[in-house]
Here is the input.
Amino acid sequence: MWVEVGPNRFVRWCDGFAQRHGGALAEPPRVIADDDACSGQAIELTAADGSTATCCVPFPPLVSAVLDTTAADTAAPNNLIADLAAHALTSRTIGVLLVRRGGYAVGVFEGLRLTDSKVGARHVQGRTKAGGWSQQRFARRREGQAREAYAAAADTATRILLPHTARLDALVIGGDAGALSALRSDPRLKSVWDKEIGPQLNVGDPKMADLQKAPDHFRAIRIRLVERS
Here is the structure.
């Protein structure tokens, strides 16, 4: 099971995890340098009953003075957990690109503040059950509308994100694979795509509300929870 925990709640969540599963951690947290599920670095907590919580490090790598998990210092586990929370809370400049066939939302965040943004929508017809030539004409029209929508999204991403590229700590994306692939092919955005990190945000047709809520997700610590009953 996967859960998302905001950085302000992370230390309390870890305390609760230990209490719910035997009252304490069974061993100091283990640093996983290259966790596939997290697409990077993770911290694994093991509770007394064998339950585990693999905590993905957002914007890796984690810079911490407590990375030797074999140390005997009993304060080390709490320090590492607190360091991960502080790391997630660090103010960063983040570009956000959300795009689907029906629209796009592009923005730049300075910490939690949305400093530049643009949201747009384009009409792209849905699928039809018609057959024969009508279906082929409809499909060509729909493909043309989609190309126009992606071109508008790429133009906006170029205008909003490109001037900030040198300052961006990361690019966070979301949407559907076809739309994102179309924007990846735009040579103007190559330097922006070089900043991409995972995971992708899960959004419908992007709205301003989705853009404004993006920090709730890209700053969250994703946790893979395996509970022993």
Q: What stands out?
A: The chain has a mean pLDDT of 87.
